Amino acid sequence: MSVRALLICLLLLIRPTPGLAEACGAEIPCPLGDRSYHVRLPDGWDGKTALPVLLHFHGWGRQGDLIVKHRRIAGHTRRRGVLLVAPNGLGRTWDFWRAGGRDVTFARAVLEDVAARFPVDPERIYVSGYSYGAAMAWRFACEAGAGVVALLAISGKLPQDADCPEAPGEVRQVYGFADDVMRFPYGPEGDVTHPVALWREVYRCGAAERLGDWQAVDWLVLERLRWDCPEGRVTLDLHPGGHFIPHGWIGWQLDQLMGRAPGYP
């Protein structure tokens, strides 16, 4: 069952439990069996309106409590009416190297638990991650991506020969040429589109459209390539920097995905 179908079924079968949402938040993790996750509600939420969800996987050595306070992540979701959900990886990392690992199952359970605590919009589920978390977001999209609107991956990926039986509606990837942690994955003959080769094959893409440069802040210019494909859309943003979350990147993607003019912050 897809993530969207699962959440729709949950919404039909259960209502968010009064008081349960207040039991956890940015500082207090939401318990889930022997594991947990963090949430950050958007500013000014009325307590009733169904919320878009951004499920974000933290980088190596981190936990969800950092994510829900991170200016380049939570700083954008809270201004856009999006519920930020940040699972905690065991040992501060993720099991993404092989198919069928524990963390895809855990992340699906997190989304189910979130739907029991908050009114969520099953038509607007986004998945993101940074570094090792980006690779974990890829893994989740590959195995549970049906029903996910978009994958937003930052400075990380899976091997391009990974098996992806499922896929999100679209993929948005950003990578820096000077990344010295999860090094930029050039393809044959220096092909700079290689970071999304897997998804271009999954979506049966043709040639890229070069959309030119864009920037959310003065100090970082990104070049955008886009593939509008028979089975989905792929966007690749490239920049000259290293291993970091570009200022404004998550906010711009969410704005565009939700049909708004991109803004910063």
TrEMBL record:
<keyword id="KW-0378">Hydrolase</keyword>
<feature type="signal peptide">
    <location>
        <begin position="1"/>
        <end position="21"/>
    </location>
</feature>
<protein>
    <submittedName>
        <fullName>PHB depolymerase family esterase</fullName>
    </submittedName>
</protein>
<comment type="function">
    <text>Involved in degradation of plant cell walls. Hydrolyzes the feruloyl-arabinose ester bond in arabinoxylans, and the feruloyl-galactose ester bond in pectin. Active against paranitrophenyl-acetate, methyl ferulate and wheat arabinoxylan.</text>
</comment>
<comment type="similarity">
    <text>Belongs to the faeC family.</text>
</comment>
<keyword id="KW-0858">Xylan degradation</keyword>
<keyword id="KW-0119">Carbohydrate metabolism</keyword>
<dbReference type="InterPro" id="IPR043595">
    <property type="entry name" value="FaeB/C/D"/>
</dbReference>
<keyword id="KW-0732">Signal</keyword>
<keyword id="KW-0624">Polysaccharide degradation</keyword>
<keyword id="KW-0964">Secreted</keyword>
<dbReference type="InterPro" id="IPR029058">
    <property type="entry name" value="AB_hydrolase_fold"/>
</dbReference>
